[in-house]
Amino acid sequence: MHITPSSLGEFAFCPQKFYYKKTLRKRESLKRIILKLIGKIMHLLYRKRGFEREKLMSAEIGDVVLVGKPDMFRVEEDFVEVVELKVKKMPKKANEHGLRIWNSDLVQVLAYGLMLEKIYGRGVKLKIKYVDGEVEVPFMKDVVFEYINEYVDVFKNGKEPRKIRDGRCKRCEYREMC
Ligand code: SF4
């Protein structure tokens, strides 16, 4: 089974929402298309010397294959540094891990970490760059494996997706059917 780190990040936002998106194939909203475009421009403008950018890579992790393009990474002798760029602000409060990052971004960067660790056979340093600051992310493998297992349970083993009900449901395009 192939999984992209960005899909895993979306899945972490709300497994039920991602399930609807993947199975109903609704057209993307204009807001989302514009945000993606801004993201592409930001990625083009943000350059850091010595970093490779958006290279398609894959790695077999147990029964799944992670496939994706990390925004930026550089390979050093004993570690790989991975930087994800986000066109949004950091959350105001820290999450359960004491980090001011969104859960979907956390899971995405951890999945890239897993992929690059496997490819280059060395440790990883992870960072997320938001428009208002940068956060270094500890490599919490247990967290990303939890989401990979849950993803496989839903899309391979037919388990009912989990619903994350919170304030964001008000803006969810699937709230009527959820
Ligand atoms: S309404 Fe809430 S729980 Fe339901 S899919 Fe949307 S975000 Fe998830």
Please explain how this structure is put together.
The protein has 178 residues and is of the alpha/beta class. The protein has one domain (2-158): Lambda Exonuclease, Chain A (Alpha-Beta Complex), CATH 3.90.320.10. Helix content is 38%, strand content 21%. The chain has five helices and eight strands. α1 crosses α2. Bound molecules: iron/sulfur cluster (SF4).
Strand and helix map with partners:
Elements (H helix, E strand, L loop, with lengths): L1 E2 L1 H9 L1 H10 L5 H16 L6 E2 L3 E5 L2 E5 L3 E4 L3 E7 L17 H18 L2 E8 L2 E5 L3 H15 L23
Helix pairs in contact: 1-2, 1-4, 4-5
The protein binds iron/sulfur cluster.
Q: What is the CATH architecture descriptor? A: Alpha-Beta Complex
Bound molecules: iron/sulfur cluster
**Could you give a short account of the major beta sheet?**
5 strands, mixed
- By DSSP (H or I, 4+ residues per run), the number of helices equals 5
Please state the average pLDDT score.
Answer: 92
* The CATH top-level class label: Alpha Beta
Distance between the termini: 27 Å
Count of DSSP E strands? 8
Helical residues, percent = 25-40%
Structural class: alpha/beta
* Biggest sheet, spatial arrangement of strands: 2-5-6-7-8
